[in-house]
TrEMBL record:
InterPro entries: Pectin_lyas_fold, Pectin_lyase_fold/virulence, PEL. This is Pectate lyase. It comes from Nelumbo nucifera (Sacred lotus). It comes from the Eukaryota. GO terms for molecular function: pectate lyase activity. The lineage of its organism: Eukaryota, Viridiplantae, Streptophyta, Embryophyta, Tracheophyta.
Amino acid sequence: MPRCRRGYIHIVNNDFTQWQMYAIDGSANHTINSQGNRYIAPSNPDAKEV
C-alpha cells in the first residue's frame, strides 16, 4: 500500500480492500491527495480503519 514520507503523492482511482496494517500512510511532513478511491475496511481487528 502507498506510504509517503517527506513528499507529495497523488493517489487516483484505486480499490483499497483487505489491507493488513493501513490503506495509505504518511509521516514526516507529507502531503497525500487521495481522489476517487474506494476504501472498505477488512474484518481484521488489528487493521486500522479509514
